[in-house]
């Protein structure tokens, strides 16, 4: 239920941003043509890119929500990260590169002179209000999701496996800063008569969009490669398995995030030698059920009985972590 509610909130956030960016893009294009401002042209490209990006985010939400099937036994959750990674590429390719181009053209004196900037100021003011509405919506959702995870907003952004709302928040934050840069470039051009300010504003917008694209790209690249679950969850899984009466030692735990709020758990356990095969089987079923009950994000649990002194296992664990967790003492 919580996962479905979060997906609905993410979809609403994307739709609000899509409506705002579409209207803003049209207005900025008209204003850029009327004023001849490079900063406004860069901002128009920025809004066109954002509109296209919201469509990609919506497609990612829809496709990643499809249920698991025979060919995709773990579902389609990772597809969301692919579409969000495309958003990062689009921000750079459609927004940042065009902004750099406009800025360099203006600095080289190849840009047409600026006409009456009044239309530009009006469009920038209206755009700021509309972007602010979308930004507040995205910020409210990110804060709510962070509170639900008992994390600060910066920590949530670093750890989240649901990048949709983060993408919208970063896009809208960049849009608001970009509007201020465009306003400054337009105003300084008008006050000084020097087009260099308009070109500098456009280049700064390109730098801003490049930074946002790199942050989004890094977040989604980590999720696509395969990132472990929240460290707090991993510690709790180790504690719960280690406290089971059938377990002598938790040799290894591997967790992988493979979708929004969807975690795969694999654990290698040294069972007590006095247990029968049937008792081991029942213990595995019970522990898997308890883990899923404790953490709604856990979707699949695989438990493997292993001897603690197996040299190959020890080598693999040491290679991955650099050490082996010591077995519990009798007093613990």
Automatic annotation (TrEMBL):
<keyword id="KW-0472">Membrane</keyword>
<feature type="transmembrane region" description="Helical">
    <location>
        <begin position="174"/>
        <end position="197"/>
    </location>
</feature>
<dbReference type="InterPro" id="IPR027469">
    <property type="entry name" value="Cation_efflux_TMD_sf"/>
</dbReference>
<dbReference type="InterPro" id="IPR002524">
    <property type="entry name" value="Cation_efflux"/>
</dbReference>
<feature type="domain" description="Cation efflux protein transmembrane">
    <location>
        <begin position="14"/>
        <end position="224"/>
    </location>
</feature>
<keyword id="KW-1133">Transmembrane helix</keyword>
<feature type="transmembrane region" description="Helical">
    <location>
        <begin position="12"/>
        <end position="34"/>
    </location>
</feature>
<feature type="transmembrane region" description="Helical">
    <location>
        <begin position="121"/>
        <end position="139"/>
    </location>
</feature>
<feature type="transmembrane region" description="Helical">
    <location>
        <begin position="203"/>
        <end position="225"/>
    </location>
</feature>
<feature type="transmembrane region" description="Helical">
    <location>
        <begin position="40"/>
        <end position="61"/>
    </location>
</feature>
<keyword id="KW-0812">Transmembrane</keyword>
<protein>
    <submittedName>
        <fullName>Cation diffusion facilitator family transporter</fullName>
    </submittedName>
</protein>
<feature type="transmembrane region" description="Helical">
    <location>
        <begin position="81"/>
        <end position="101"/>
    </location>
</feature>
<dbReference type="InterPro" id="IPR058533">
    <property type="entry name" value="Cation_efflux_TM"/>
</dbReference>
<keyword id="KW-0813">Transport</keyword>
<dbReference type="Pfam" id="PF01545">
    <property type="entry name" value="Cation_efflux"/>
</dbReference>
<dbReference type="InterPro" id="IPR040177">
    <property type="entry name" value="SLC30A9"/>
</dbReference>
<dbReference type="InterPro" id="IPR036837">
    <property type="entry name" value="Cation_efflux_CTD_sf"/>
</dbReference>
